[in-house]
Design brief:
Layout (H helix, E strand, L loop, with lengths): L10 H15 L8 E3 L2 E6 L4 E6 L5 E6 L9 E2 L2 E6 L2 E8 L2 E8 L13 E2 L6 E6 L2 E6 L6 E3 L5 E6 L5 E6 L4 E5 L5 E5 L18 E3 L3 E6 L4 E6 L5 E6 L18
Antiparallel strand pairs: 1-2, 2-3, 3-4, 5-6, 6-7, 7-8, 9-10, 10-11, 11-12, 13-14, 14-15, 15-16, 17-18, 18-19, 19-20
Length: 258
């Protein structure tokens, strides 16, 4: 049973519903389905829309159109966010009441500049998405996205554990710490890893994962993983892992000492 669903829906039931959507529509190409209470939100890339289903019955509750090139679906509170070519679609689920709001791109947005990924944190009212060579900032009260300039295109961006900082790895190999509320750059560490072409989809590019007090950056060109102190952005360790590291994962264990 899934506690976050109030014990009413089994994992098997969710799996069956998703399989029905896959077999019936064949449109779940953009991100994972999002479960909010007893509602499953399914982003339909080819149809430029989000469908809301009742988890118990599988009944289609509502279709929300108007999100071309749909990607992503982070959840903040009772709202799920989807990146679109023309902005961000916010879908709110309050019991059986499903509403939506569109946050549009700012005026004079360059052709091809869009939000493809959105990140959120439970301790921050502000969301961020990639936006060309920078980021886009928004809150639930906004109607238009606010651009945040960066020195190079973002390769990876994540909230720190406290939700007060946004850590951004940019294509020039630098790491930045931003004030999550304002988007202001607080600290930067230049050229930690070799620069990469953010537009090259085939290349293995540096990436990042955050721990409680450290960031871990992959360096594909040197076969290393760098451990960076979040409070100072200084290199604590260089871990020689060999090969061409493309991803990094963190694990932890806790228990009683006997």
């Amino acid at each position: 049973m899934l506690d976050q669903l109030g014990g009413a829906i089994t994992a098997l039931g969710i799996h069956i519903l998703i399989q029905r959507l896959l077999s019936g529509l064949g449109q779940l190409e953009a991100g994972s389905p999002t479960v909010m209470g007893n509602v499953l939100l399914s982003g339909q890339l080819a149809l430029n829309r989000v469908d809301a289903y009742d988890l118990k019955s599988g009944q289609l509750l509502k279709t929300i159109a108007g999100c071309p090139g749909l990607h992503g679906e982070p959840i903040l509170g009772d709202t799920s966010y989807f990146g679109c070519t023309d902005g961000v679609l916010a879908v709110r689920v309050n019991g059986a009441n499903i509403t939506s709001q569109k946050l549009t791109n700012p005026a004079n947005t360059p052709e091809g500049t869009r939000v493809g990924k959105v990140v959120a944190h439970a301790k921050s009212p502000v969301l961020y998405g990639n936006f060309g060579t920078g980021l886009a900032r928004s809150t639930a009260q906004d109607a238009v996205l606010t651009p945040v300039a960066l020195p190079a295109a973002p390769l990876k961006f994540m909230f720190a554990a406290d939700g007060q900082r946004l850590m951004v790895l940019t294509a020039d190999g630098s790491l930045h710490s931003l004030d999550a509320h304002t988007g202001r750059v607080l600290q930067s560490a230049a050229a930690l890893v070799k620069p990469a072409d953010a537009a090259d989809k085939a290349a293995i590019k540096p990436t990042m994962l955050l721990g409680q007090n450290s960031a871990y950056l992959t360096s594909p060109n040197t076969g290393e993983v760098l451990e960076i102190a979040l409070n100072s952005l200084t290199v604590l360790r260089r871990l020689a892992v060999g090969g061409t590291p493309a991803l990094v994962a963190l694990t932890s264990a806790s228990g009683e000492q006997h």
